């Protein structure tokens, strides 16, 4: 399966998981829409649930029909300097054999200035620019291809940041911080889940 097909499939699962949120201006995760499964709890088909937590990273899955593997992704909510939630990131593994090792969907609030794109960097390293792909009632999404080098930098890094701009105030730069604490362990666990 090529990158585009895998990315579309992962995006469908991502959109299915955020479609449960009723917050119109921002797809904020809330404790009543996601479940942390205990040993005795059962998720219904289509339910989104947290499978595991690794410091600041979660493994979030969607319950698939019997006989199918639950698709899982890494998840973290990003906050601004005032600890306000301003973005969500979902990272999923790709195995197309190419240089792209993973994909990510970064969702920002509605009224993000789309023409300014997302400026993404790891530990003050070089800035990568990611264009927005679409907006829906939950927010605006930029799709990111992550190469082996990108994943290595995320594993070795301490934090990353995504800079976005407000459509209402184009001079207002909002920096969303992404902790990389627990990323390596979470990614290793996600790879293990996928190989099972």
Roughly how many Å is the radius of gyration?
16 Å
Q: Estimate what percentage of residues fall within beta strands.
A: 35-45%
Query: The CATH topology is what?
Result: Immunoglobulin-like
Please give the largest β-sheet: 8 strands, mixed
Would you count the extended β strands for me? 12
Spatial order of the strands forming the largest sheet: 1-2-3-4-5-6-10-9
CATH architecture: Sandwich
Jot down its keywords:
3 helices; 8-stranded mixed sheet; Immunoglobulin-like; alpha+beta; 196 residues; 4-stranded antiparallel sheet; globular
Q: How do the helices and strands line up, and which of them pair or pack?
A:
Layout: H1 3-18, E1 35-36, E2 48-54, E3 57-62, E4 72-79, E5 85-93, E6 100-108, E7 118-122, E8 128-130, E9 132-136, E10 139-147, H2 148-156, E11 159-165, E12 173-179, H3 183-195
Parallel strand pairs: 1-2
Antiparallel strand pairs: 2-3, 3-4, 4-5, 5-6, 6-10, 7-8, 7-11, 9-10, 11-12
């Amino acid at each position: 399966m090529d990158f585009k097909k895998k990315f579309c499939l992962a995006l469908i699962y991502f959109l299915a998981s955020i479609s449960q949120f009723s917050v119109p201006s921002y797809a904020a995760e809330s404790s009543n829409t996601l479940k942390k499964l205990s040993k005795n709890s059962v998720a219904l088909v289509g339910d989104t649930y947290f499978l595991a937590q690794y410091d600041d990273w979660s493994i979030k899955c969607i319950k698939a029909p019997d006989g199918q593997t639950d698709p899982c992704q890494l998840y973290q909510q990003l906050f601004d300097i005032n600890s306000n939630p301003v973005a969500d990131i979902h990272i999923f593994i790709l195995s197309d054999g190419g240089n792209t090792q993973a994909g990510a969907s970064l969702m920002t609030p509605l009224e993000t200035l789309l023409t300014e794109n997302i400026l993404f960097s790891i530990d003050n390293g070089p800035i990568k620019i990611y264009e927005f792909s679409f907006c829906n009632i939950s927010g605006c999404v930029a799709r990111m291809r992550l190469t082996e080098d990108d994943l290595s930098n995320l594993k070795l890094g301490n934090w990353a940041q995504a800079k976005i701009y407000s459509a209402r105030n184009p001079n207002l730069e909002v920096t969303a911080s992404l902790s990389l604490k627990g990323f390596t362990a979470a990614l290793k666990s996600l790879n293990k889940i996928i190989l099972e």
